[in-house]
Amino acid sequence: MPRVVATCSSIRDFTGGLALFDVDADTVPRLIRALDARYPGLGEHIHRKLAIAVDGDIHQEAGDIALTPASEVVLIPKIGGG
After folding, report:
1. Following DSSP, what letter does each residue of 4-34 receive, concatenated?
2. At CB < 8 A and 24+ separation, what contacts does 52-58 make?
3. Domain total of the chain
């Protein structure tokens, strides 16, 4: 199962303090849906506020990125610009 690492405290507000957990999913959108089912409201928070790094590659949008059982998914704040 892909391992999810939460790097910012806003995620821990949804997860009851957890910063590391495994999620059974084979794509990023499925992972986000699974997280939202487990932690209501987290899915929308991810879409609005967070970027996703999959195995070291940062994505500002979730897209249809494939995951493997060995994938590491890191949830990080989106990079703002101006």
Report:
1. EEE-SHHHHHHHTT--EEE---SBHHHHHHH
2. 52/28, 52/76, 54/28
3. 1
In a domain, 41, yes or no: yes
Three-state secondary structure call for residue 34: helix
| pLDDT per residue as tens digits for the range 14-50 | 999 999 999 999 999 999 999 999 999 999 999 999 9
* Residue 49 falls inside a structural domain: yes
CATH number of residue 63's parent domain: 3.10.20.30
**Global pTM?**
0.90
21: domain range? 3-77
Lookup result for tokens 């949830």: 75
Residues 46, 32 contacting (CB under 8 angstroms): yes
What is the token pair recorded at 14? 């949804």
